[in-house]
Amino acid sequence: MLSAQERAHVAQVWDLIAGHEAAFGAELLLRLFTVYPSTKIYFKHLGVCPDEAQLLTHGQRVLEAVGVAVQHIDHLRAALSPLADLHAQVLRVDPANFPLLIQCFQVVLASHLQGEFTVQMQAAWDKFLTEVATVLTEKYR
């Protein structure tokens, strides 16, 4: 459970990246595929150029899902249930990939936001994204 201050940090960071979902999402996916090549197995159709249309589109969808989680931070299970069903039952994504995605997202945030992404913000986002990953993996049980 996030504290009021942690929620504020999550919202503050989201305000900084909102409107740039496609670019942040594409970079996140490229970083994930580069650092953890085995994760690309689910995305064989995506290119590896930052400005590739399909990569930008999927990156935007990933970040839009994060935006939904930010907006429904108190009701993550209900808000993310369809996404959890999709990943667990249809796509059958290995749940071990979610922590890898979180790690890469933290690096993307830190590289872009630099001094604006304080230690407190990083800790709040780590906790928040871990909760999101937990919700997404609950459907696997």
From TrEMBL:
UniProtKB keywords: Heme, Iron, Metal-binding, Oxygen transport, Phosphoprotein, Transport
GO molecular function: haptoglobin binding; heme binding; metal ion binding; organic acid binding; oxygen binding; oxygen carrier activity; peroxidase activity
Domain Globin: 1-141
GO biological process: hydrogen peroxide catabolic process
GO cellular component: blood microparticle; haptoglobin-hemoglobin complex; hemoglobin complex
Biological role stated in the UniProt entry: Hemopressin acts as an antagonist peptide of the cannabinoid receptor CNR1. Hemopressin-binding efficiently blocks cannabinoid receptor CNR1 and subsequent signaling.
Record family assignment: Belongs to the globin family.
Quaternary context: Heterotetramer of two alpha chains and two beta chains.
Name of this protein: Hemoglobin subunit alpha
Source organism (scientific name): Panthera pardus
Lineage: Eukaryota, Metazoa, Chordata, Craniata, Vertebrata
